Amino acid sequence: MSPAAFTWQSLRAALPALVGLGLIVLQGCAMSPNANPRDPWEPFNRQVASFNDGLDEVVVKPVATVYEHVTPPFVRTGVYNFFGNIADLWSLANNILQIKPKESVETFFRVGVNTTLGLAGLIDVATELRLERHKEDFGQTLGYWGVPTGPYVVLPLLGPSTLRDSLAVPVDSRGDVVAGMNDVAGRNALMTLRLVDLRATLLGAGKLLEAAALDKYSFTRDAYLQRRRGQVREEPGTSGAPSEERFDLPEPDKIPPAIQKPPP
């Protein structure tokens, strides 16, 4: 077995344990009397965010920048569509788990159309046919069934999360078609390409954030939490947002205008 294969397999196998260990460490962290109820582990989270930012600055961002400069736009679009089509498979599973018949049917046909007519997903034919994409993950499924969001958490390497979403990470990992490939070389190449392509799509947003005189950590946290709340739209038997205990949003008058309406 090659070192690369060993690394990917070991990391994936250890992911549930790493997430669990991280949550135990967070539970043991001292909480100040004035701790933010949405972010009671803020000192620890800031340290992890700083580590992630340092790794991104040294490794991921430079590679993504080169990728953006040397890869033609139509190729990047094809790569983005390809991985989006693969992600739709897991979204389909979660739409079914949330008992959303309309979304499940549309997602099913999205995958079928893009896989066949769209050349394995390289061309997003389904969007042209007005088949809407319904992105869902297991964290959203848990929220749909009433599992509370819990406090904000920053995970090593994975970035912003919540207690609920952190517990969903191992399940999402198992539902990742790319990570489950048996072809080690192909799997590693695709996972690397997906990471670089995703980071390249965020280069523009990163420049805007760095140019603004803002606390990057607070901005990222509030934007992430508001976006996640919007993604968990409803729970069984209701037509509105889930009536769960919320730790994930600041008071309305404390939300920076720039993130009150985050992009979809």
Overview of this structure, please?
The protein is built from 10 helices and 2 strands; from the N terminus they run H-H-H-H-H-H-E-E-H-H-H-H. By secondary structure, it is mainly α. Strand 1 (152-155) and strand 2 form a beta hairpin.
The gross shape turns out to be: globular
**What is the CA-atom radius of gyration, in angstroms?**
19 Å
How helix-rich are the residues, as a percent range? Answer: 55-70%
Spatial ordering of strands, largest sheet: 1-2
Instruction: Please provide the count of β strands.
Output: 2
- The number of helical elements comes to 10
Can you give the mean pLDDT? Answer: 82
Helices and strands: which structural class? mainly alpha
Low-confidence stretches: 1-8, 237-264
Largest sheet: 2 strands, antiparallel
Tell me the fraction of residues in β-strands, as a range: under 5%
Order of secondary-structure elements: HHHHHHEEHHHH
Multimeric state? single chain
Q: Termini separation (Å)? A: 41 Å
What's the arrangement of secondary structure elements?
Elements lengths: L2 H26 L13 H29 L2 H25 L3 H16 L8 H4 L9 H7 L7 E4 L3 E4 H12 L9 H18 L1 H9 L4 H16 L33
Helix pairs in contact: 1-7, 2-8, 3-4, 3-8, 6-7
